[in-house]
């Protein structure tokens, strides 16, 4: 079976075949941080979100902004592990943004609590993130 053809449209969205989706399988680790740069967000994660990231002022690191795209509930699968599966239509996403799933800090993507989702030919992603809040800020 041939893969659906993906074309870039003028508005930056991906033109896709019907049912062309991305599946993100997410594991959230609710463990204690080993660094003083993080702290546990809370007792138990209930959900997780996909965000698009962009700079409010182009090329100014401290101007990073997150906009929530979708949120899903999590299910407890172990003592300190939670999981969920997010399914997105490619037509909902734009190549003009960076996407991440997790618990992002204020103005930058931190790989400990937020996993980058690259829009390419992959249609299934397996990611793990920590349920931590970053105490660092980029100014």
Descriptive notes:
The protein is mainly β and about 140 residues long. Helices cover about 0% and strands about 50% of the residues. It contains no helices and twelve strands. It has strands spanning about 5-10, 15, 20-30, 40, 45-55, 65-75, 75-80, 80-90, 100, 115, 125-130, 130-135. A hairpin with a 5-residue loop joins strand 1 and strand 2. The protein is flat, with a radius of gyration of 16 Å. The model is unreliable at about 1-20 (pLDDT under 50).
Topology:
Elements: E1 7-8, E2 14-15, E3 21-29, E4 38-40, E5 47-55, E6 64-73, E7 75-78, E8 81-89, E9 98-102, E10 114-117, E11 124-130, E12 132-134
Parallel strand pairs: 3-11
Antiparallel strand pairs: 1-2, 3-8, 4-12, 5-6, 5-9, 7-8, 9-10
Strand order of the largest sheet: 7-8-3-11
Rg, nearest Å: 16 Å
The computed structural class is: mainly beta
Would you tell me the overall average pLDDT? 83
| Helicity range | under 10%
| Percentage of residues in DSSP E strands | over 45%
Order of helices and strands: EEEEEEEEEEEE
- Can you count the helices? 0
Low-confidence stretches: 1-18
Number of strand segments = 12
